Amino acid sequence: MSLDLGPHPDADGYGEALELDRNDPLAGFRDRFVIDDPEIVYLDGNSLGRLPRRTPGLVREVVERQWGRGLIRSWNDGWWELQLEIGDQLSPLIGASPGTVIISDSTSVNLHKLATAAVEGAPGRSKIVTDDLNFPSDVYVLAGIAETLGLELEVVSTGDNATAEQSVIAAIDEDTALVSLSHTAFKSGFTYDMTAVTSATHASGARVLWDLSHSVGAFPVDLESAGADLAVGCTYKYLNGGPGSPAFLFVRQDLQEELNNPIPAWWAHARPFDFDLDFEPASGIRRFHTGTTPILSLAPVAAGIADVADAGIDAIREKSIGLGEYLLRQWREHLVPLGFGLGSPLDPERRGSHVALTHDEAWPIARAMIELGKVIPDFRAPDSLRLGLAPLYVSYLDVHTAVQRMKEIVSTGAHTRYEGATSAVT
Ligand SMILES: *Cc1c(COP(=O)(O)O)cnc(C)c1O
């Protein structure tokens, strides 16, 4: 079967989408990305951002000139400082001062490093608090730390996004060493009030570690005004750094000399090229580095950050809300009658840049959207379809088109043939 890929000018909301696109101050940013097939509506930028046009040239420059010609001399011609330099470029997006952010390792490894540093820096306190909205992998990392160090991990059952804050705050007590949460929840898109949770954590004498993976680049974060202690996050989602690009970590200035890196490898040493057998930590944020920076995957992160910085994080957030609210109007009009529910908060103030729709047949619908509809969402078990609204390249017309294609798939039953489909990555 073939699907009417649109546009669908007769369907409700079409004129509104065109009008919103005409008035969109960020509309021109779409041209900064490689859009190989204009029929594809890409709604998975919250998992893997699109390829910025500047990135292939940047990678070519790093490979051919810096590596090919510069050889090992390139470490002294900029590579050695690159993780700090790009960290400083990223810091304004998350409300961090220069010298508090580095690009290093993966989010999982950074979480492990900073969570371990925090609990080892709180002797006598025996509990780590997280919640059931967190990315399960983060919970595995925290459980591993708790097991190794003989601590208790409390995974707070939030039950409902709306009461998550109260439930988490109620679990923080005098025994708590660390509270570690995702700022924006990966499944529902619920976003915590960072200031409220950070203050409550500090009132009990504990520290807080925020995972910003689903916020950074789409949602303005102000770590320092919230008083946050520690943070980590991905660069390959809304920052468009490329598959597996290295992650970032933040350690507030006054904690940098107080906490210890649990993987004190040579890049965290004060004088790595002395090759002294005794470890002496570097001063500043460098102390939280580990081993050699993966330059080929680090370099494109700068291009991704630059696009976000040029657009301005507040303008990005405004469009993100606009796209989300438009999607919800379209959902009510066209998708609720077909059995789609909402897995995200209705209040845009409490929602990141993706919207989760729920449906009993979400899995075959997701497959049909990709295979027949050229709409790329992702599926999160058991019943969520996540629609990522990356404001730099998703248009209002994209949202209209995606909803119309979903409507046609479900109303014709076209998805039922994908019921038995399997896929390693969902
Ligand atoms: C995407 C994501 C990760 C991914 O971690 P990796 O180490 O890059 O695989 C971790 N935590 C959260 C909250 C995420 O959204």
Polypeptide structure, described:
This protein is an alpha/beta fold. It is built from 12 helices and 13 strands. The strands form 3 sheets. A 7-stranded mixed beta sheet has the order 2-8-7-6-5-3-4, with helices on both faces. β3, α5 and β4 form a beta-alpha-beta unit. Bound molecules: pyridoxal-5'-phosphate. Pyridoxal-5'-phosphate binds next to α4 and α5.
Topology summary:
Layout (H helix, E strand, L loop, with lengths): L13 H9 L18 E2 L11 H16 L12 H9 L10 E3 L3 H14 L6 E5 L4 H14 L2 E5 L7 H8 L4 E7 L11 H10 L3 E5 L11 H4 L3 E4 L14 E4 L43 H17 L1 H23 L5 E2 L11 E5 L3 H10 L3 E2 L1 E3 L3 E5 L7 H17 L14
Parallel strand pairs: 1-11, 3-4, 3-5, 5-6, 6-7
Antiparallel strand pairs: 2-8, 7-8, 9-10, 10-13, 12-13
Helix pairs in contact: 1-12, 2-9, 3-9, 4-5, 10-12
Bound molecules: pyridoxal-5'-phosphate (PLP).
Keywords:
single chain; binds pyridoxal-5'-phosphate; alpha/beta; 12 helices; seven-stranded mixed beta sheet; 426 residues
Number of helices: 12
Distance between the termini: 23 Å
Helix content: 25-40%
- The string of secondary-structure elements, in order, is HEHHEHEHEHEHEHEEHHEEHEEEH
Number of strands: 13
The residue-averaged pLDDT reads: 97
Low-confidence stretches: none
Radius of gyration (CA) equals: 22 Å
The percentage of residues in β strands lies in 5-15%
Query: What would you call the structural class?
Result: alpha/beta
Ligand catalogue: pyridoxal-5'-phosphate
Instruction: Profile the largest sheet.
Output: 7 strands, mixed
What would you call the shape?
globular
Question: How are the strands of the biggest sheet laid out side by side?
Answer: 2-8-7-6-5-3-4
